[in-house]
Structure formats: C-alpha cells, structure tokens
Design a protein that fits this description.
Layout: H1 3-6, H2 20-32, H3 39-42, E1 47-51, E2 54-57, E3 62-65, H4 68-71, H5 80-90, H6 102-112, H7 117-120, E4 123-127, H8 132-147, E5 152-155, H9 164-168, E6 186-189, H10 209-219, E7 230-233, E8 236-237, E9 243-244, H11 247-259, E10 264-267, E11 291-294, E12 306-310, H12 329-344, H13 347-363, E13 372-378, E14 381-388, E15 393-394, H14 396-409, E16 411-412, E17 414-416, E18 422-425, H15 433-467
Parallel strand pairs: 3-16, 5-6, 5-7, 7-10, 10-11
Antiparallel strand pairs: 1-2, 2-3, 4-12, 8-9, 11-12, 13-14, 14-15, 14-18, 17-18
Helix pairs in contact: 5-12, 6-12, 10-11, 13-15, 14-15
C-alpha cells in the first residue's frame, strides 16, 4: 500500500462510516466472534492494509492511526526494516521454545544494553508467553517466591491485563464484577492523579501526599496490610488516562520500598520501548527498579513479553513459569530490527519533538473549550480529558462523541480512563511533523465542533427551563 500516493500526509474519508464492505464484514464478525470484542464497536471499520501512520479500510477510506495496535506498533505499520527482518528469519527458524538461538542471543544483548548502565549487570531476563499480562503473572510469581510473602500493592487507575491476576491488580472495578474470586491479597493505593486528587486535596497542597499515604500504610503495624511481596505500578498510566506520576512521588515510592526490602515492579508494557521519549519511562525519574515488564512494542507488533529482574530474585526452580510461545524467533528478529531503527534514526528525539508539538497544540485549547478539562502525558502517550462543563465531571458520552467525529474526519483514537472520558493518543514513534500537523488540525476542529454542539444544547436546555 502506498498511502502517500493515495493521500499525501492526509486521511481520505469517502462517505458515511462504516462503508458497505465494512458493514458486511462487521456483520460477519458479529455472527461468528465472541461478544467480548471491543475496538470495532467504537471504530466500526474493517481494515484492508496499512503503512506507517496510515490505515486503509476495505471501502478505500484512509485514516491516520493514533491507536497503533494499542501501542504495539512503535515504528508504525509494516516498517520496511521490520518486515525484511521477519521475512529473513522466517526462512531460518520461527519457533524455538526456550532454546538459545543466534537471534535470541542478539535480542537479549541488545535489550540489556538499553538499560541504564547501573542495571545492566544486575538484570536477568525471563521470556514469557506472548502477552503483557503473562509478564505480569510471571513477575508476581517471581516476587512471591523470592520473598516468601503473598500480598501485593497496586494503584488506583492501573491496568495490568485481563488474566485473573492481571485483573485483580487493575483498578477498574466494573471489569471485575462478574468474575468472582480473583487473585487474593491485592491492596490498592492512591495514584497521584493530581488533576483529580484521590485524597481530595487541592493541587497546590499535594506535597506527594499519595507517597506519604503509602509509606504510612507499609510501615504502620496497625494498617491491616502485611508486608507485601511486591509493589507494582505504571509510572505513566495508559488505560488509566495518560497520567504521568510526579517525579517526587516516584522517588519517594522507590525509597520506601527499598528501605523495607519490597521489590518494586514497573509495568512498562505500554510506556516503554521509547513511547515516552526515553527507552524506559523510569529513566526520567532517576530510580532503579527491581523488576521491569515489557511487551507490546518490544516485539515490533509481533507477540512477545519479557521480564527484566534483579538477579538476586532469581531463586525459583526450573519450570516455575513456562509457555509454549516464549521463544518466538520472528518476534526476536522484529524486535532487534526495530531497536536498530530507534538507535540509528534518532527516534527518541523525534518522540520528544512531536510529543511536545501535539501537547502544546492541545494545551492551547484547555482554556478555550469548556469540554477540555485537562491535557497531559509524556512523549507520544498523550491524553485529553473530556468533561461535562456543567459539573466538571468526566464525560464518557461527550468523549465518545468526539471519537466518532474524529473517525469521520479520518483519525483513529481510543477513549480510556474513568468513564472512558479521555481521548488517548498513541501515534507511531516515527510520526513526522506533516502528519502530526494534520492530526492536530483534525483534533482541534472536532473538539471545537463538539464543544459548540454542547454549548448549543446547554443553551437550549436553559431556555427550556426558563420557559417552564
């Protein structure tokens, strides 16, 4: 697919969505697939092909993709270096269980070298099954075995997957309601969502109160929480609403967990592999974690998950955590190729530049539009929190309306956070300024249009109340 020939740096929507062929395939999907499917419900298209930052549906509509496989496609769709590496490896070996192979050795050394120097000689790697949730499962088992403890502390607003343990560690209570007993022993601490302080304090009075709260819980013998096997956290919450933890909070968290000898697990599944402008998001915080979880973009779109952990924790016996697909040679080849592109093409610098461009452009709307409550994020993991101006509460209804208007204009995004009220932006890390400019134009247009619609409805409601 040569999107540049079809629509140079711009999307192209030919008519009402979904188009006729997409409608047919969506109907077939509805007949044959589980009710649990999600993305086609809010983004009702059937995809034909994709390249770079662009996706084409089966009806010939072209969209800018700011969803990127939920963050798995760091370099965008079908990057030529990744495609070439996968094709070459497919002729050699595709599946290797956990046997050593040349490409696995290259992958291992390349990714260990991306750790801060102080961690490289201390970390070992555990190759898990194909999803990030499997890395979560492995890390929790690792820490429980190594410490002999059973409790785990997670954070409000977190997302760690849909397995029983992953769901137990995630903040969304609605997702848990019908599944009965999940992994026991999980306790939730407030995450510093400073726009809406979980402790009910004014933003100016924060002074890392969430960190102090957790420190008190962990050190108070009457807190009701036994010393945990681990604390697990996303330093930049993705599904929670593109919320980045403040530096002081993270450093305080690391200090208290270290003083109490509690392993600190950093879930970098969405925020890692360059997404926030450094290879790992924790690099900007100046801390040294005990465990790092990586998936999504580490396989450049092919299924792969990895746990990096301090070798002092490596006391579990052979076979403690296994999986048939922990040795995907194609994912190793794709991951090495993608990492080489990141290094050679200055991709991390590009993430910082384009992320700042988008963040500044969206931040300018915060004071202008009543429906824009907050604009935030790091690098190219950004969020716009949509609110009901009458109450300043999150409004999923308005956010979904914005999402639909964006789709009609040719921009694919997902809504996340409380009440699905946050427009989340996950562009490719290779996003160029021309495409970023067009996307920002679409975002600005649609946010203004929906804001004006809401204002009109509010005025009409006020007039009606006045008449009554």
């Amino acid at each position: 697919m040569d999107v540049q020939t079809t629509a140079p740096n711009r999307p192209l929507v030919n008519g009402p969505l979904p188009g006729p062929e997409s409608r047919r395939l969506l109907a077939e999907q509805d007949r044959h697939e589980s009710n649990t499917r999600t993305y086609p419900r809010r983004i009702p298209i059937a995809i034909k092909q994709a390249q770079g930052a662009f996706v084409e549906d089966v009806d010939g509509n072209v969209f800018i993709d700011f969803l990127m496989g939920a963050g798995a496609l760091g370099l965008g769709h079908n990057h030529p270096a990744v495609v070439a590496a996968v094709r070459q490896q497919a002729d050699v070996l595709s599946h290797g269980l956990d046997f050593p192979t040349p490409i696995k050795d290259e992958f291992t050394k390349a990714h260990l070298a991306m750790l801060p120097a102080v961690l490289r000689d201390r970390m070992r790697m555990q190759f898990c099954g194909p999803t990030g949730a499997d890395a979560v499962e492995a890390a929790i088992k690792l820490c429980k075995f190594a410490t002999g403890r059973t409790e785990v502390v997670a954070f409000q607003g977190s997302y760690h997957g849909c397995t029983h343990a992953g769901l137990a560690l995630s903040g969304d209570t609605t997702a848990k309601e019908r599944f009965g007993a999940l992994m026991p022993g999980v306790h939730f601490a407030p995450f510093p969502y400073c726009y809406r302080c979980p402790l009910g304090l004014r933003p100016t009075s924060c002074d890392t109160n969430c960190a102090h709260y957790l420190e008190n819980v962990l050190t108070d013998p009457q807190s009701g929480i036994a010393k945990p096997a681990a604390v697990i956290i996303e330093l930049v919450q993705g599904e929670g609403g593109a919320i980045a933890a403040p530096v002081d909070f993270v450093r305080r968290l690391r200090a208290v967990t270290r003083s109490l000898d509690i392993p600190l697990i950093l879930d970098e599944i969405q925020s890692g592999c360059g997404r926030t402008g450094t290879w790992f998001s924790f690099e900007t915080y100046g801390i040294e974690p005990d465990v790092i979880l990586s998936s999504k973009a580490i396989g450049a779109g092919l299924p792969l998950s990895v746990v990096f952990f301090d070798k002092r924790l490596d006391v579990w016996p052979s076979g403690s955590h296994i999986g048939t697909f922990r040795g995907s040679q194609l994912a190793f080849a794709a991951g090495v190729a993608a990492l080489r592109v990141v290094q050679s093409d200055g991709v991390l610098d590009n993430v910082v530049r384009q992320g700042r461009f988008l963040l500044d452009g969206l931040a300018s709307l915060k004071g202008e539009l009543a429906i824009v409550g907050d604009v935030r994020g790091r690098g190219l993991l950004l969020g716009v929190e949509i609110v009901d101006p009458a109450t300043n509460r999150q409004s999923g209804a308005i956010a979904r309306h914005v999402q639909q208007r964006l789709l009609e204009r040719g921009l694919l995004i997902e809504v996340v956070g409380r009440d699905d009220a946050v427009i989340k932006l996950l562009p490719p890390l290779t996003l160029d300024r021309a495409t970023a400019t067009v996307a920002l134009e679409i975002l600005t247009h649609c946010l203004r249009a929906v804001d004006a619609e809401w204002a009109g409805e509010a005025d009409a409601q006020a007039d009606e109340e006045l008449v009554v």
